[in-house]
Amino acid sequence: MQRNIDELCIEIERRIKLFQEGMDENAHAYEIAELLEEVREQSKPRFIELLKSFPEDLKADVLAELSKSAQEDALEAIDAKELAEIIEEMDTDDAADIVQQIEEIDEVKAGEVLDEIDEEESKVIRELISYDEDEAGAYMQTELFKAYIDETIGESIKRLKEIKKVSGLDNAYHVFIVDNKDRFLGMMPMEDLVLHGPNEIYRNIIDREGALTVSIRPQDPIDKVIELAGNYNMNVIPVVDEWGILLGRITADDIYDLMEKQATDQIYGMAGVQEESEESENIIKAGKTRAFWLGINLVTAIAASVVIGFFDSTIQSIVALAVLMPIVASMGGNAGTQSLTVTVRQLALGDIDPTEAKRVITKEVLLSLGNGLIYAVVMGLIAYTWFDMPMLGVVIGLSMVINLIAAGFFGAMIPLVLKGLGIDPAVGSSVLLTTVTDVVGFFSFLGLATLILL
Amino acid sequence: MQRNIDELCIEIERRIKLFQEGMDENAHAYEIAELLEEVREQSKPRFIELLKSFPEDLKADVLAELSKSAQEDALEAIDAKELAEIIEEMDTDDAADIVQQIEEIDEVKAGEVLDEIDEEESKVIRELISYDEDEAGAYMQTELFKAYIDETIGESIKRLKEIKKVSGLDNAYHVFIVDNKDRFLGMMPMEDLVLHGPNEIYRNIIDREGALTVSIRPQDPIDKVIELAGNYNMNVIPVVDEWGILLGRITADDIYDLMEKQATDQIYGMAGVQEESEESENIIKAGKTRAFWLGINLVTAIAASVVIGFFDSTIQSIVALAVLMPIVASMGGNAGTQSLTVTVRQLALGDIDPTEAKRVITKEVLLSLGNGLIYAVVMGLIAYTWFDMPMLGVVIGLSMVINLIAAGFFGAMIPLVLKGLGIDPAVGSSVLLTTVTDVVGFFSFLGLATLILL
């Protein structure tokens, strides 16, 4: 049941009070954002009006939780000076994300916002937005709890208390240990501080117990962030530069987002759509990307038709061929997509790599061949009965086996070759594949028919 | 360059030493597992031999990090008594996972292993494996750091130190606050313990600052775990029963696994393959699942052929129709897959839901219609030029527009309806869709041709 705006406002009021009492701030910000989205569905002006009436810190937390299209509305409606104040309340990674979005809408406004922000923070944001959205640096946050190797736990905790008061560092979770030049030496979960006394020096703990030193460069691809997080079960990853200096950290919530983004990119890539185009409210943008892949599909479909054209006189003599030929192409396309999908996904998850090409291709060809043989017999019998032509059954059976072998082979090989060449194996591989299975399917079926039936 | 077994053994030796010195245990276990996988590629007996030679605690950590097929080899080769010892070293979630795998291979052996394990732990494992693999309970671990509402931070930390020594609780990260009946009252990051003095009572902190109370039931679907983790930016989720009693927690590394599993299920579901069948070494199992969907595809392809069969005399008079008809079907299938993929993925991410059906379908139909009009003109001109028949261009253009409208409509509607019925919208939806686009494509093209050209 849909709630009306007044009911939503009452609920929002109640949540704001809870937020201000300091209980579960994150949870409340998320829930207020959800309520605001409901208001926005019914009235955009009311949505903007409500958001503007919030206290500054709540505005920041809620803005970060809104959907991308709601954020766009808000960023357009709020002026540069106020945006600057909101952004100053945010963690640097969220702040950079918002500034980047303002830039996409209105570059001049983004410049004004950055000029209004405190100089040091604006410098950090400018640096973060300089990273490409496929680079780890774009997702890092510079707020973290740092301790020096030669200080005691007690000294560092005293500093943590100060930082918490001043900058509102949330969710520290780990202490990042550095030397006096800020070079990263290792990280420890907070619980280790509790377990050791306040007089213990970090150097002694590390000498005795070690500390995890895995880290990432800001220029590394986001796939590497996901790989590290999964392999080492890390819920935060330190980011260091080429001199080993600690720059920031990527936290679990960003790792979740990156994993979802990676999966969406793969799923969309195989279908010829693009995340950035789809999530914008601008339908023309989505249409353009889709049109690109549809255009390529048209070219390959015409290529398959040209193959059919070679056999027009055969079809004219035996019209049953026209009736049956889409079956051969369809089964090839389907079996090939199965092989392709498994190969693309296992490549992405690191379960296989191009050096194992021989094993993967053999497996896929065997699988396709096995199923090809079964359905060749089934379809052969159906065709024989349907058109009362025994040899037509033989032709469709044979061509189906040929096409399914091609499907398994190319379904595995196309993504392996693309990956080997450093190209994303998800994007466009399915158009390439169906071109192969259409051409092989039509050519083998009509070719064999010409040889055997005429 | 591939390393030979001797080189790998030297590297493994070195890592074992580092592991035993206690530095970065998790990191080393993961890296030793990677090295072992390389050994296994060259010689399975050497892989088993090496694994068996490891100290018990390392065996447990490494076994948990191995790939599923490597785990299967190990579980077959190691006897029940030794497996029980290894499992006792594991966290409960990993232990349950391993016992479940032993059960899949050899149920009698699994029973023996459980009998050998310490009674209390075996009870916990039996409970965990009773959950379905789509339920949150299957991924929870019972090791966690619990504090009572009326105790002081100091008292709880003293207990944590004891627990750490006895059971080796790693990565506590949070304190879970309960009442004297073990009912969950809220959680706090460890850093809050550092910030408050040891004499502070938990009740006072919660009264003042609140604590996050979001939790999940063991019977909840894993999709809910992913949703909560994303929405509330949680890197650990408490699991409670229907009386509110704290049972365990699901940690970030498991949430990563669940997110990957969810994405893989979606990608595979759309292609008609299944993760569990594909990741087993047993090629027959993978073949069977794939054969099922290929069989359904065969039935739908035959249905489309029956439609073509209605028009056999039309095709006989104008053989160009046979040449061009796959283009109409292919463009419909492609555009429909774009709509389907976007809808399935956005449903999965919670960006849209079935109540928004009208908006989503309108958007998809508009997008398909737009691109349909463009390519209808393009293809109409091509067909006209190719076969020198102006009206043939009109027929293919019209049928393409009709088929692309159907593609957009059904591409959005099929997953929305499936979701509304509580069925997974990823699985099988693409076979349903291509049936529609094939049938509509062939029927509109050949039907219009019969009406206009004959």
From TrEMBL, chains A, B:
It is found in: Cell membrane; Membrane. InterPro entries: CBS_dom (IPR000644), CBS_dom_sf (IPR046342), Mg_transptr_MgtE_intracell_dom (IPR006668), MgtE_N_sf (IPR038076), MgtE_transporter (IPR006669), SLC41_membr_dom (IPR006667), SLC41_membr_dom_sf (IPR036739). Its main location: membrane. The chain crosses the membrane at residues 291-311, 317-336, 365-387, 393-418, 430-453. It is a multi-pass membrane protein. Pfam families: CBS (PF00571), MgtE (PF01769), MgtE_N (PF03448). Residues 206-266 form the CBS domain. Keywords: CBS domain, Cell membrane, Magnesium, Membrane, Metal-binding, Transmembrane, Transmembrane helix, Transport. Acts as a magnesium transporter. Belongs to the SLC41A transporter family. Homodimer. This is Magnesium transporter MgtE. It comes from Hydrogenimonas cancrithermarum. The lineage of its organism: Bacteria, Pseudomonadati, Campylobacterota, Epsilonproteobacteria, Campylobacterales.
